[in-house]
Amino acid sequence: MAPVHRSLGRIAVVAALLLVRATCADVLPDDRADLFYSKYSGGGMDITGESVLVRKKFTEDFALEASYFVDKVSGASIDVLSQASQIKDERKQKSGTAEYVHDKTTYALSFINSVERDYKSDTTSFSLKQDMFGDLTTLTMGYAHTDDTVGENNGTAFVPVIAWLGHAQSQSYNVGLSQILTKNWISGLNVNVITDNGYLANPYRSYRYLDPTNAKGYSLASQVYPDTRTSTAIQAQVKYYLPYRAAVSGSYRYFTDTWGIVGNTYELDYTHPIRNIWILEGRVRFYKQNSANFYSDLYNFAGEYNFLARDQDLAAGENTTIGAKVTYAFLPNGWKMFKRATATFDVSRISFHYLDFRNIKYYGVPQYLPGTEPLYEFNATVYQVYMSMFF
Amino acid sequence: MRSFRPALLAGAVLLTAACGNIQPWVKPYERDRLADPIMAWDRDAISTEYMDHIRETREGSRGATGSAGGGCGCN
Description:
Chain A is mainly beta. Chain A has two helices and 18 strands. In chain A, the strands form two sheets. Chain A has a 16-stranded antiparallel barrel with strand order 1-2-3-4-5-6-7-8-9-12-13-14-15-16-17-18.
């Protein structure tokens, strides 16, 4: 076997040894550095992202991780085409995590700061992971607190004039359980409850109401959202090692919230390594939701209800993702400080179909009566290219 | 109430069992397949976080996508 062929095999052996060791104490993951590039194109939007992540163990029981992410948004979504100017924006996100292991418990403390010119967000989170029952079971518990400051650009893409509209806060509580069932089966269950309060609307989206005085037959106005929301999501997943060296996994997530949205997510993945150099992965994901109970594509008149929303995220709809990922392992003998490295290319195609959100972007003249326009749908393609170096 | 007795008894047995020393039915040396990188819930966190962000800004649902890691500490 050539040395390059042995690289992933060696990883499995080392990981197995770590597992044996894990019966005595938990261990932190390998040191690694990732360079990441992404591109999203769909619905009139182009978003490119660049990121770097570094993770380093300073002792056997203490590690730090830092990441920096920049994404640049340009284009014009359906909301923009129906009412406003082009979008051009940039988001910068910094995060830091400290991890400490004591016996079979791993503690993690994280801070994330995200800044756009019209949106600021700070998240602080704490989690702990506990191995138990002969390390067949892992319990994870987490809490996160987020503070957002929400603004609106009333200027142009190039000469912004920001009006700060309000604040939003959220608390997230997460409990997860991972269970080894057999030598080939592993299963997981995650429950996540999130509560929000404050300014929760998207200021760039509007609700629509019938207006005979307007040539189009309708007018647009600022959305009014409830100022609280509580959601619960439960995800169950399994992963199985096939009789040959490949893995298949499946997951299901049920979501419900106090706005009346119920969402169901189904996902299937297949992972297939080739000669310890390549790992091929294919996945299919299907998502469906109903609309929020205060959502409407078209209200009868302005201010018809206390809460008014025509945000496509709150509309009934479904989307299907088909994705593929290729990972190439190289530097099996290491290079300078690096022990090994991988390069990955990932592409996903997502088809969005809305069931009660209509496409009003092309109709300057009343070609359709309000409420009879075609339903909105679009396709998006997501590319990810990244290199991971382990040291 | 009568019909609940078997369930109560079973619950009591389970609770008692939980206090005992549970023997792992998959020994550490039998976990080589589970330790294979292809069995990791999430091989590339940076990519998973990115896709979660894309979805959460386009769907009404959110949360519970993080996995709890391997039961053997191999996440």
